Amino acid sequence: MFAIAAETGWPEERILFMPLARLAEYQHCLLRRNGVRTNWISAETEQTTLRDQLEALRERWTAEDQVDL
Description:
Layout: H1 2-8, H2 12-16, H3 20-33, H4 50-68
């Protein structure tokens, strides 16, 4: 939030009540603007419930973090 506020001058309240998807887009653009390489990842799973989908994504991201170490 600090990075977006510093870059845009928006107050904290505006950022906190913004949709998460839009914040992710702003963060992505902010990183690219400052020379940080980024890429979108696939967030699709074969799970049907939201809880199972989030758990599957968490497991995938945790496994990817372990490979990077």
